[in-house]
Amino acid sequence: VTNALADAARAHGAEIRTGVCVDSVIIEGDRVGGVAIGGNETVTAPQVFSSLDALSTLRLAGAEHFDIEACRRVRNIRAKGTTAKINIALSSAPKFGGLDDAHLRARLLITPSLNYIERAFNPAKYGELPSEPMIEAVIPSLSDPSLCDNGAHVLSAVVQYAPYDLKDGWSAATREQLATNFLAQLGRYAPGIGDLVTATQVLSPADIERDTGARGGHWHHAEMAVDQMMMLRPTNGMGRYASGVPGLYFCGAGAHPGGDVTGNSGRNAALQSMRDGAAP
Q1: What tens digit of pLDDT does each residue of 163-201 get?
Q2: Which of 217, 227, 275, 279 is 20 to 30 A removed from 160 (C-alpha atoms)?
């Protein structure tokens, strides 16, 4: 999907650069002038769209370009992630009771009841790991055999609720404990799956923060709570994708309607910039 989007953008004249670091957003005359990248290069532009969280965007632009109230609101956005990602390599395809091959290619959700979700979440309130986590998994190698050789497979799972501020801290031991709890729960529905595991990768919210820059390791850049949704996303006064600095827009998961792989935040930000006078 990502490659298809990139190809479509290039077909319309876009230039895509990866592996470069944005050092700052350039503000000239109280409006955006472009970005400084790679330590010694400047890219000029009348509009800059940031898919970072709001606080990271403001830091790149400089807090001095925003009023005190805007800075206070952005600093107080709640964004502590409770989602971990676990990837496991398997020597062969797992067998889930009651599911045929067609169903195994779909999304597998382990959450038997609302009470189960509540029990899974309760430990996170105290900075602890769930013993019976809520799991959303896919086995992409069943749909795309080219991902593995010799009958091997991979399973990728989103695991709830693993707190960012874990009481004992995120370490090799706590990551291993989460993986153990995860496999034990999977084993109730796919007996023997633990014996098939040849490699395990655990990405905690702290790892996600480190690797992606998302504050608190929150995939949506801000909790999806009533006071952080719709016109209040990312904060009151910044709900229409404009940051307050002319030409600087939010287009990521922290803007309405939030995260997930929809592209709606970016589309809406682009439409807003055109309403503000940008050329289509």
Answers
A1: 999 998 999 999 999 999 999 999 999 999 999 999 999
A2: 227
The neighbour count for residue 277, using CB atoms within 10 Å, is: 10
The structure tokens listed for 49 are 């769209």
Q: Distance between CA atoms of 153 and 208, rounded to whole angstroms? A: 24
The 10s digit of each residue's pLDDT in 138-149 is 999 988 888 888
Phi, psi of 45 (to 5 degrees): -165, 140
Tokens of 103: 């169903």
C-alpha distance from residue 250 to each of 53, 79, 269, 271 (Å)? 8, 16, 7, 12
Whether the bond between 191 and the residue before it is cis, its omega within 30 degrees of 0, is: no
Selection from 128, 215, 136 nearest residue 174 by Cα: 128
Percent of the chain having pLDDT more than 70?
99
Q: What is the mean pLDDT of the chain?
A: 90
pLDDT (tens digit, 9 = 90+) per residue, 74-105? Answer: 999 888 888 999 999 999 989 988 888 888 88
* SS3 at position 111: coil
Q: What is the C-alpha to C-alpha distance for residues 245 and 35, in angstroms, rounded to an integer? A: 14
For the beta sheet containing 22-28, the strands, ordered from the edge strand earlier in sequence to the opposite edge, are: 22-28, 31-37, 41-44
Residue 219 CB coordination number (10 Å): 19
- Report which residue type is found at 272: Q
Residue 202: count other Cβ atoms within 10 Å of its Cβ. 21
H/E element, 213: none
CA distance from start to end of the chain: 24
What are 197's two structure tokens?
Answer: 């595991």
Query: Residue 278: which residues within 8 A CB-CB, separation 6 or more?
Result: 46, 47
Mean pLDDT of 257-276: 87
